[in-house]
Amino acid sequence: MPQHDTRPEPDHQRVEDTVLDLLAEILYVERDTVRSDTEFTAQGLDSILAVEYLAQVHEALGVKVTLEELHDLGTPGALAARVRQAPAGTGAGHAPHREGREGAV
To answer: CA 61 to CA 59: how far, in whole Å?
Structure first.
């Protein structure tokens, strides 16, 4: 029986990486300190930072998410899933890679 590759598709991983990279950037923390499965608020994202974060997500991934949606989604992993499920033509998956702030703390 052939084995199936269980690694995520590159686009799937790129979206999640971008969501996490942007979160680390907005929070001024090292990238490895943000977690896909931890609530945004537990990671330090407040409503003021969330506005800027969502603007960056929209710029980087081409998908608009409201503050209410972000609150309902709760975690970066859920946000990444929402971005991946965005209707065709929203720009998701076609944005250029953004560089994070090196050494931001």
So the answer is: 6
